[in-house]
Design a protein that fits this description.
single chain, 392 residues, alpha+beta, 2 domains, eight-stranded mixed beta sheet, three-stranded antiparallel beta sheet, 15 helices, 15 strands, 33% helix
């Protein structure tokens, strides 16, 4: 049974688990919902209830609900569809072929990157050799410092300038609409787990349910185009390890700028390594107690049980490491991309056994995140791991 618009608006948005990825708005074929105050809102008719869609109730649609990362199948339900039986391992952090630590060799990338620069190196490599014709990332601009916005980049310079994370939420999925407008067909998509999952849902969903006997072919074609079209443009899913992100206003505006007196325009970089690290452009490092910062974590993040972007082709993050990226190669496609970059001399690579602490932190955060997910309404489980998955 496919989930409905009404279920999405009640069991996700009203319930408080909406992650604000914007994917439902992206795939809506009939302009029923829009992205308002970082949430989907029914805008077709102001007098209609917030959970009413005339198309859903009439001829049928519900494209939006099919891609919601908090509704229907969760990450562990989709594992067999994303990863065929190809010899990969199944561990506590999902399916993987190899786990390594890697670092970019390009000084220009290292100067801008968050940890080891692996994600930026993938984008630069792919844009240069034509593997990608664009990439969806989050980026900032001088007019609104430290506040990332979704962006499509098509040049190496723009890919490098988008490096670094800001630990506040950015609805990257919405930028797939710009990729479509630009006619891009080989897009590298960079996102946190709750953004990778909807892209995978777009790619995997069988649109056959749209043909319910009540629609003209042109309506079915339109709905199918919105439901499947954006995901079909994604050539590689690059997931970012993520436990939670912070409220921009509470952490950046009220605390960093208001209490600490640091203008946001003077911040060069932002990182989390047991503490919140604020790197100023003048070279000064200011640290904030992580427990204090976690008071500003978005409550929506506590409904996510996927720390390591389990459905990505490649998952990356600096967990427990400094100046290195812990890199999880999950699919054959992701492994081939990574090996091609190593062969081209773009990356230093070390075995994960040399980063024992990183793996301990990785496993601890994976388990902790899965266990914290509350049981959604109408269900008997939150994020139960199916049989066959080990502890490593």
């Amino acid at each position: 049974m496919n989930p409905s618009f009404k279920e999405m608006m009640n069991e996700v948005v009203a319930y408080g688990s909406c992650c604000e990825c914007g994917s439902c708005v992206l795939v809506c074929p009939h302009n029923v919902i829009d992205y308002v105050d970082n949430k989907p809102k029914q805008v077709a008719k102001a007098t209609n209830p917030f959970d009413y869609c005339g198309i859903s109730e009439g001829i049928g649609c519900d494209c939006c609900a099919q891609v919601c990362p908090r509704l229907g199948e969760r990450e562990h339900h989709m594992t067999d569809s994303v990863f065929p039986e190809d010899g990969a391992y199944r561990g506590a952090f999902g399916v993987y072929r190899r786990v390594v630590a890697a670092r970019c060799k390009d000084p220009e990338v290292l100067k801008r990157c968050e940890d080891g620069g692996v994600v930026t190196t993938i984008l630069v490599w792919g844009l240069r050799n034509g593997t990608f014709d664009g990439a969806v990332v989050s980026a900032t601009d001088p007019a609104n410092p430290c506040a990332p916005h979704p962006k499509v980049v098509t040049t190496v310079d723009d890919a490098i300038s988008s490096a670094s994370s800001w630990y506040t939420y950015c609805p990257n999925n919405l930028a797939l609409a710009d990729a479509q407008k630009l006619g891009l067909t080989k897009v590298a998509f960079v996102g946190v787990p709750c953004q990778i999952t909807p892209v995978r849902k777009m790619q995997l969903i069988d649109p056959g349910f749209l043909n319910n006997g009540r629609k003209k072919d042109k309506i079915i074609d339109k709905q199918r185009g919105f439901l499947k079209g954006f995901g079909e443009r994604v050539a590689l899913n690059i997931g970012l390890l993520c436990s939670e992100v912070f409220s921009f206003n509470e952490l950046m505006v009220d605390t960093v700028q208001g209490q600490l007196g640091i203008p946001l325009s003077e911040i060069r970089q932002f990182n989390v390594k047991g503490k919140v690290q604020v790197f100023k452009k003048d070279g000064e490092l200011v640290e904030i107690n992580l427990r204090q910062a976690q008071e500003y974590a978005r409550p929506e993040c506590h409904h996510c049980g996927d720390f390591s972007a389990e459905l990505a082709d490649i998952s990356c993050g600096g967990v427990g490491a400094t100046n290195w990226t812990i890199t999880v190669l999950r699919t054959e496609k992701g492994e081939k991309v990574f090996d091609a970059m190593v062969a081209a001399g773009l990356l230093d690579v070390r075995p994960i056994e040399e980063f024992e602490n990183s793996m301990k932190v990785f496993l601890r955060l994976t388990r902790k995140q899965r266990e914290r997910v509350p049981v959604p309404p109408g269900r008997t489980e939150s994020f139960v791991r199916p049989p066959g998955f080990g502890s490593h």
